[in-house]
Amino acid sequence: MGIISNRVEHYSGSGHANQEQTATTPVNVTVSGETMTSFAVHSVCLPPQKSTLQKLRHRLSEVFFPDDPLHGFKNQSRLRKLILALQFFFPIFEWAPNYSFTLLRSDVVSGLTIASLAIPQGISYAKLANLPPIIGLYSSFVPPLIYSVLGSSKHLAVGPVSIASLVMGTMLNDAVSYNKEPVLYLKLAFTATFFAGVFQATLGLLRLGFVIDFLSKATLVGFMAGAAVIVSLQQLKGLLGITHFTNSMQLIPVLSSALQHKNEWSWQTYVMGFCFLAFLLTTRHIGMRKPKLFWVSAAAPLVSVVLSTILVTLFRSKLQGIAIIGHLEKGLNPPSSNMLYFHGYFLGVALKTGIITGILSLTEGIAVGRTFASLNDYQVDGNKEMIAIGLMNMAGSCSSCYVTTGSFSRSAVNANAGAKTVVSNIIMASTVLVTLLFLMPLFHYTPNLILAAIIITAVIGLIDYQSAIKLWKVDKLDFVACLSSFFGVLIISVPIGLAIAVGVSVFKILLHVTRPNTGVLGNIPGTQIYQNVSRYREAKRVPCFVILGVDAPIYFANSTYLQERILRWIREEEEWLAANNGSSVKCVVIDMTAVTGIDTSGLAMVKELKKMLEKRSLQLALANPGGSVMEKLHQSNILESFGLEGVYLTIDEAVADISSSWKA
Amino acid sequence: MGIISNRVEHYSGSGHANQEQTATTPVNVTVSGETMTSFAVHSVCLPPQKSTLQKLRHRLSEVFFPDDPLHGFKNQSRLRKLILALQFFFPIFEWAPNYSFTLLRSDVVSGLTIASLAIPQGISYAKLANLPPIIGLYSSFVPPLIYSVLGSSKHLAVGPVSIASLVMGTMLNDAVSYNKEPVLYLKLAFTATFFAGVFQATLGLLRLGFVIDFLSKATLVGFMAGAAVIVSLQQLKGLLGITHFTNSMQLIPVLSSALQHKNEWSWQTYVMGFCFLAFLLTTRHIGMRKPKLFWVSAAAPLVSVVLSTILVTLFRSKLQGIAIIGHLEKGLNPPSSNMLYFHGYFLGVALKTGIITGILSLTEGIAVGRTFASLNDYQVDGNKEMIAIGLMNMAGSCSSCYVTTGSFSRSAVNANAGAKTVVSNIIMASTVLVTLLFLMPLFHYTPNLILAAIIITAVIGLIDYQSAIKLWKVDKLDFVACLSSFFGVLIISVPIGLAIAVGVSVFKILLHVTRPNTGVLGNIPGTQIYQNVSRYREAKRVPCFVILGVDAPIYFANSTYLQERILRWIREEEEWLAANNGSSVKCVVIDMTAVTGIDTSGLAMVKELKKMLEKRSLQLALANPGGSVMEKLHQSNILESFGLEGVYLTIDEAVADISSSWKA
User: Fold this and answer.
1) Are residues A501 and A646 in the same domain?
2) For residues A160 and A127, is the Cβ–Cβ distance under 8 A?
3) In a domain, A360, yes or no
4) What band does B296 get if pLDDT is binned at 50, 70 and 90?
5) Start-end of H helices in A179-266
6) Would you say residue B655 has pLDDT above 60?
7) Is A7 an interface residue toward B (CB < 8 Å)?
8) Chain A within 8 Å of B253 (Cβ-Cβ)?
């Protein structure tokens, strides 16, 4: 066995293990002119001494400021700091000074393109939330303006989105019916929007952005697909022309409601509806296949609205059965701060709806922002974005808007259409403004079926079956999380579906910690490398040693398991040795490289294990314990019981030193 | 820099990275007679191919059968297997054939000793659960007998315990008052016991024993101390002779109730009470200081009961103010299966009480069993113990017993008194039997104050302030978990206190995963060792490289954080290099040794990171990715994007190979 190590003691920090040095067969090795002596043992260091307060500060800064947001402010003059601070809080000051006519031209084109999508989608999504269609347009006017001042993403197209609309509609409708109490419903919607905004801004301010990370991608894939299926089925109401449709949001009631009211189906409606749906889906397909033709799918919804409205207006008398939007008020967003509802029976509903729609819309907004930032090679600060989205919703709730965020589909169109800055949002808002002021009467005869078709076309993209297949291939437990959020949303309800999915994701982490991998390591001959013998056929067990790798922090949740498992490994190795060459185990080395933390239960386990092995005359050594583990072993006085021959920097040194001590 | 590695390609599994071999400056190294050539690269292996079903089987066997319980059955004859199975299910068959008179003598001594503790404690604990005192004696008779057949611990002294009694008393009393509806209360107590037993046996049968691991030691220290404080304060009722005392279990109501009813304080009661309390505490102290005198503290409760009963009987007329136990029925446990309550309004209460007392008593029983097993060098199987405790409680609920388990204090006395097998439990049960049949009238004049003093003496040992101090020293977050369970129990309620503590413990695990340690690694000159530069002063940064260690699995909960943090490390290293020697970073190596798992979000992060670094003309390499990580990188096709120079077995090889490729 070619063990090469060097006789150099490394003192640093207050490392204290292995001060004894027993050198056996020192070997001179000449590498690039340096001469070293072999077979020595490196001491394992404790991390630099820090007070509890320093540790707490370091920990807090890692938890809340991992990106060191103020690093740009270091070593700057006062004036520069002021300007940086202004730019930090209002990104508009960062890009506005360099804004040019070329940029404006791109932004106008993209702004008009997304406006043509935003107007029909706004009307449709408002219906999804059981709100009057005009609220959808209001929500496409104020929030984008606010975002353009505060937001740091260049491509985010702000406005109502399908998921948040659906969830708000479902949750509020469970408490209050819009048809029966429209004013109360509106009040609750604005209040929920306000709470959503407060929640989002608070998360950002407290730098708790990592909360949304708990909605893993797997969870979201399942959740979105489930929501998309429900939303699409709900649209059967509009597409088939049913008047008495269930308000429920579960699969079975929706399906049975559609079938039960067969007598209400109107053939004019569903013929026209499915024709437009086919048209929209075809244009969507073209837009996806050929990214250059993105404008086909971008323009299709507006074209459909115009076409269908003309059709219905012309053949008004023959198409009586087709439901239309009806009268829409002209004019700007009326103020709605007087409609916020801060006490009374339904406050809890508004709060809950606000938090859930808040977190969902935040997740979508941040994910969209990050995606397009990384595609276009700039960075968005998650926490700053949260503040921007939160403030935009708070302002929205006072100006007759409901929950808005960055929409994935419209942002994609925005980016494809060549948007360069958030000015495209201002252009879009201006277009919506013109619509609100002058064009509202044109929507009077727009049939509801076209809104249903637009919604289906928009949400169908949320069913990402390819991702689901990939999840199954790569990570079965992620796939289970995905499935459970899908069926949870579909069969039980949106909040419970989400809760189940988050539960499964957290359970996965806990399972990883509760039942970590362990394995026997062996040496790859001629190297200092030790690897799992079941993975590397070359890795050979070292005689008289059992070298075990533990792949997790040792915590209360796994200390009992690890103790049992380690004892079983030792037993199995002993049995194997006895059966194969009759030798016996004399020392157990635990590779602590991947043991990234230890708590008091874990420390007790290590102590216990050492005692148990000692009773069986087995030596226990630890290889490469990490900084925090070393510190805790030291603080709990366990290190002392290990003495001089118990803690090594590498497995190789442990094996070399311990076997040489046997020879001596 | 002395980099020593060996030109040996290791093919195994289907490893495929780094098939290219560019050797620069090969060096001959002679170690113990072998000659090797330096500068070669080992391929990183994929783990052995397994089907989904095989993986699932392996995973399930690790989750549910980590101790391989059937390993003793391998390669045995049929008859032997049958005997082993009998011994497996009924440990009595294991020890009974070798039982001898010497063992019996020890067991009789220890059995009588624990009986002298069990009788007064049984009566006292039953009062703690608001149950008639005799139930405590019943519970010290049937369950120990059942445990002696099924249990595998040699030192467990079975019977009622303080924590489970307190919790049962609190939770049932919230729903039903014993004084108003004694029969319903009794029914609920037996039903809760039944459910506790079913829950415990089910956990054991389904091998879900790890559930109790989630009550970490830190949690339990706080919980027990909180419960002990509450229980002690509750005993002011008995010690001061108050008749109208609160049923509440929170700190403030209990204290204020004791002070409000000052007019009810009886001086005879509290003088006598505090005298006996002082006596009991003194003997307890002696027993703790000198383990040989354990019999002093073991005998003290019975001595106090006898003494106080004689005193009260003699001076009956003068000690009118002292409350006494009163009439106790002679006779054996009456059957109570007809009192189990499986439908109706209070079923939920019984179920909840059963599960919570079940898990608490299980935790105590298993912990006690493990402690004494490890002290006396034998093993107890947690899951088998759970079945034994569960069946014993199920049987108990049908014979007028309430929740029982292994008591810590009595088991310690049992062990000290020299118990050798569970026969000491049989001896104890026989003594209780004699008491039940003949001695019950003797307890008529036993004053309640002595029961209060016994309870206080017993629970005061649960306040383990030394452990709390140690928690503070070693692990601040564990201390927070401890404190929150302490105050949760004291101020809110027992179940909520427990829930908070478990929540804090789980949060700790999540925090560890959400914000893992990362750090820059450097080479210890003359070795192949790479360590954190902030911990090892000798560790030197390698020019042109940023080597980062990541100390956690890369999951959805930390992938965003890790991406930001890694980019920040790179930025900081670039700034540092620019300021110090003007060189630039050309390659980033991530040490994946401690990355024990990766999920789809983590994979997306790695892919994203690679893309981002490529845009900045930085190379990314991974060192020592573990088996499951490697497999997932492979399945998700990310490995391909790394190509030949991206995945290495060690950091050292990565650095050597990449720098040599630059030279070439």
Assistant:
1) no
2) no
3) yes
4) confident
5) 182-205, 217-234, 236-240, 251-260
6) yes
7) no
8) no
pTM of the model: 0.79
Per-residue model confidence (pLDDT) at position A644: 65
In a domain, A384, yes or no: yes
Higher pLDDT, A575 or A432: A432
Answer yes or no: do A408 and A542 share one domain: no
Q: Do A8 and B506 touch (CB under 8 A)?
A: no
What is the count of structural domains for chain B? 2
Residue A100 domain-assigned (yes or no): yes
> Residue B472 is encoded by which pair of tokens?
């503070």
Q: pLDDT: is A411 or B328 the higher one?
A: A411
Cβ count within 10 A of residue A434: 10
- Is B374 close to A612, i.e. CB distance below 8 A? yes
Same domain, A491 and A577: no
Residues from chain A that touch B468, judged by Cβ atoms under 8 A, are none
Task: Tally C-beta pairs within 8 A across A and B.
Answer: 289
Question: Residue A387, Cβ neighbours under 10 Å: how many?
Answer: 20
- Interface test mutation site (partner A, options B57, B366, B556, B637, max chain A beta carbons within 10 A): B556
Q: Do B5 and A568 touch (CB under 8 A)?
A: no
Exposed (0-12), middle (13-18) or buried (19+): which is A292, by Cβ within 10 Å? exposed
**Does residue A387 lie within any of the structural domains?**
yes
Do B265 and B144 lie in one domain? The reply is yes
Looking at the fold, whether A564 and A482 belong to one and the same domain comes out as no
- The C-alpha atoms of residue B261 and residue B435 are separated, in whole angstroms, by 36
Token pair listed for A401: 């808007």
Structure ipTM: 0.81
Beta bridge partners of B520: B548
Do A504 and A531 belong together in one domain? no
Rounded average pLDDT over B261-269: 83
Whether A75 contacts chain B with CB within 8 A: no
Q: Report the DSSP beta bridge partners of residue A531.
A: A522
CA–CA distance, A609 with A619 (Å, rounded to integer): 11
pLDDT for B591-631, tens place per residue?
998 898 898 888 989 998 998 898 888 999 999 888 888 88
pLDDT tens per residue, range A128-169: 898 998 999 999 999 999 999 999 898 999 999 988 998 898
Mean of pLDDT over chain A: 84
| Domain containing residue A607 | 516-663
Over residues A407-460, the pLDDT tens digits come to 888 898 888 888 889 999 999 999 999 999 988 888 888 888 888 898 888 888
Query: In the listed set B447, B479, B509, which residue is the last one of a domain according to the structure?
Result: B509
Q: Mark which of A473, A494, A509 sits at the end of a domain.
A: A509
Q: For A35, which DSSP code?
A: E
Residues B566, B655: one domain? Answer: yes
- Three-state DSSP class for A151? coil
- pLDDT at A3 exceeding the cut of 70: no
**CATH code of the domain containing B656:** 3.30.750.24
Q: Is A9 on the interface with B (CB under 8 A)?
A: no
Judge if A522 and A458 occupy the same domain: no
CA separation for the pair B651, B506 (Å, rounded)? 33
